Amino acid sequence: MFKPLELFVGLRYTRSRHKNNFISFISLASMLGILFGVLVLITVLSVMNGFEKELRGTILGMVSHVTISGTNGALSDWRSEQAKLEQKLANQPVLEKHKDKVLGIAPFIQKQVMISANGQVRGVLLQGVLPEEQVKVTDVAQHVVQGDFNDLKPRSYGIALGYELANQLGVFPGDKVTVITPQIRVTPAGVIPRMKRFTVLSVYRMNMVQYDASTAFISLRDADKLFKMHGEVSGLRLKLSNLFDAPLLAQQLQSEYGDAYQIDDWGKENRSIFKVMKTEKVVMFFILFLIVLVAVFNLVSTLVMVVNDKQADIAILRTQGLSASRVKRIFMVQGTIIGFIGSLSGVILGVLLASNVEQIIGWIEQLFNIQLLPADVFYSSRIPSDVHIDQVILIGALAFLFAILATLYPASRASKVQPAESLRYE
C-alpha cells in the first residue's frame, strides 16, 4: 500500500525525538493504552473460558451427556429399554463420524430425601446407581477422597456422600446416617416417614459446592427397596465420545420415542448457567474493549497534534511535488506503526499472562497468605485459564483495525494543508 517515500518519512516521524515532548508522551500513552487494553481483554476472557471449561467438566462429572426417563418419573423394564436404546444408537447418523460413539449407558434412581446424623439434617438429592455402570457415564468414582465408590454393593446399605455434606453432618467412612424419604407408612403410633440407616462407605469431592453439599449415592438395588420402585428406574444415562453431539442426539431420540419419554441433554439441564456465562463474556468483552477505544482516541489526538506541528514540513513536501494522497499515507504509516506495536505487544504479553495466571495468583495468595476465591463461596477455589487462539486473533485484529481507522481523520487533515498558508510566517 505504501511506497518507500511515505514509509520512510512516516518511520522517521515515529522514531524522531521532537522538541514537543508532550506529543511524544501522548503517543507513548496511546501505544501503552492499546497494549494494556489487549492484554487485559485476552487475560480476562481466557480466565472466563477456564471457568466455563472447569464448570462444564465438573457438571459432566456428575451428570451424563443425555438422560432418558419416563414422563411419570419412572422407566419400566429398563433392561429391555436399554437394549432397544443401544440398537437405536447404532443407527444414529449423528454418531457415525465418531469411532467410539456411545461410551456407556447406566440406569439410575433419583429422589429428594433428608439425611440426618449427629443432630444435623440436610436435604439431599439421593441417587441409586450400579457402580460398575456409573463409572462409564460420570466421573464421581475418580473424585473419591475417602473409601471406595465400588463398595456400594446391593443390600450393603452403604452410601457415598459429597465432601461438604459429610463435613456438615460430621461423619466419616464407617459412620451411620439416617435417610428419611418423603414417603410415609402407617403404624400403630401414627403416620411416619420411611427411614433407613445407611453406613458411609466413601466420600467424593467434585470441587463444586452445589454437588459436594447436596448429593449422595447408594446401590440401585437398595434405592429400589427404599423407594419401593418394584424394579423400575428413574431413567437411563448416556455418555458420548463427543459431548457436543448430545443436543442433536437428544432431539433425534425425542422425535423417535415420542411424548411417552422425556429426553434431556447436559446443555438443556444446565442451560441457565452456561447462558449466563456466555452473556457475561460478551458484556465483559465490550466493557474491556472500551480501554482499547480510549487508547485509539488518544492516538487520534496524537496524530492531530503531530499534523498541526508538522504543517511547515508538509508544506515543503507539497511544494516539492508530493501529492495530497501521499501526504495522507505518511501519517497513516505513523498511526499504523503505533497501533501495530501496541496490538502485537498486547497479544504477546496477554497470552503469556493468561497462560500463567494460575501460577501468578497462587504466588500472590502464598505471598500475602490470602485466598482470593474461598471454596465455600465460589464453585471453584482456583483461577483456571483457557486461551482460545481464535479470540486472541480477533482481539488483536480489532485493536489493529481500530488503530488504522483512527489515522484516517488526522491523515485527511494533513492532506488538506495549504503550502502557501503554512509557509507565510516561516
How does this model look, in words?
- The protein has helices at about 5-15, 20-60, 80-90, 130-135, 165-170, 210, 220-225, 245-255, 265-270, 270-310, 310-320, 325-355, 355-370, 390-405, 410-415, 420-425; strands at about 65-70, 100-115, 120-130, 145, 160, 175-185, 190-205, 215-220, 235-240, 260-265.
- By secondary structure, it is of the alpha+beta class.
- The protein has 2 domains: about 5-55 and about 275-425, no CATH class; about 65-270, no CATH class.
- The protein has a 6-stranded mixed barrel with strand order 2-3-8-5-7-6.
- Helix 2 packs across helix 12 (about 325-355), helix 2 (about 20-60) packs antiparallel against helix 14 and helix 10 runs parallel beside helix 15 (about 410-415).
- The chain is elongated, with a radius of gyration of 32 Å.
- The protein starts with a helix and ends with a helix.
- The mean pLDDT is about 80.
Give unreliable regions as ranges.
none
Shape: elongated
Q: Distance between termini?
A: 33 Å
Give, in spatial order, the strands making up the sheet with the most strands.
2-3-8-5-7-6
Number of domains: 2
Q: Strand pairing plus helix content: what structural class? A: alpha+beta
Radius of gyration: 32 Å
Number of contiguous helices: 16
List the keywords.
single chain, 426 residues, alpha+beta, 2 domains, six-stranded mixed beta barrel, 16 helices, elongated
